[in-house]
Amino acid sequence: MSTDNVVDTGRRRFLVASTSVVGAIGAGFVAVPFISSWMPSERAKNAGAPVEVDISKLEEGRLLIVEWQSKPVWILRRSKKTLADLAKNDDRLRDPDSKNAAQQPPYAQNHYRSIKPEILVLVGICTHLGCSPTYRPDIAPADLGENWLGGFFCPCHSSRFDLAGRVFQGVPAPSNLVVPPYKYLSDNVIRIGDDKGAA
Questions:
Q1: Mean pLDDT of 130-146
Q2: Architecture of the domain whose range is 45-192
Q3: pLDDT per residue over 10-31, tens digit each?
Q4: What is the pLDDT of residues 140-158, one digit of tens each?
Q5: How far is residue 135's CA from residue 115's CA, in Å, rounded to a whole number?
Q6: CA dihedral 183, 180, 123, 112 (to 10 degrees)
Q7: Would you say 118 and 77 are in contact if contact means Cβ atoms under 8 Å apart?
Q8: In what order do the strands lie in the sheet with 119-123?
Q9: In whole angstroms, how large is the CA radius of gyration of the chain?
Q10: Number of neighbouring beta carbons within 10 Å of residue 55
Q11: Percentage of residues in the chain with pLDDT exceeding 90?
Q12: Element (H, E) at 118
């Protein structure tokens, strides 16, 4: 038998194993970026992450705007007069008692629509077509009428909301502004997007 026809099975096994290992490593280099592309980016993870806000310097009557889940969230410190004036709007509102449970968490289903009466937290997007209303704290301006006690006015289609985010009757917006999930970490720090353990 000639040596040309002898098959070196040991060498063949080594070559097959080596090729398989190199092929598996190459497939891994291709698969890892591909599978990683399915995972949400850090930016996407952060977009849905809770946001912590320090309100210690928020003055009475001032509106602070932060971003959560790519939406503007308003934090407003209301005065005692503002809180007292809320009841004056009740008969002109579509849902004065916030009975639509989808508009706020249970702890904000009250007359003030908040955990602490003086601090209002709202998603700043009109419930009509998604415009962002403007903060109009002025009392009885010429363009909004003598009964206006302050609130939010949507310039897109003239929807109006009071300083608890409750929608007025006779405007295009069908429902109150949304209260996002939130809780207090301390007297001056609010976490928006997380309400586990909120009172």
A1: 87
A2: 3-layer Sandwich (2.102)
A3: 777 777 777 777 776 766 666 6
A4: 888 888 888 999 999 888 8
A5: 21
A6: -70
A7: yes
A8: 63-68, 71-77, 119-123
A9: 29
A10: 18
A11: 58
A12: none
Residue 38, classed as helix, strand or coil, is coil
The contacts of residue 66 (CB under 8 Å, 6+ apart) are 51, 53, 72, 73, 75, 192
Phi-psi region of 193 (alpha: psi -120 to 50; beta: other; left: phi over 0): left
Parse the chain into domains and list their residue ranges: 3-36, 45-192
CB-based contact 78:64 (threshold 8 Å): no
- Given a contact cutoff of 8 angstroms between Cβ atoms, the answer to whether 185 and 52 are in contact is yes
The phi and psi torsions of 137 (rounded to 5 degrees) equal: -80, -10
Residue 75 three-state SS: strand
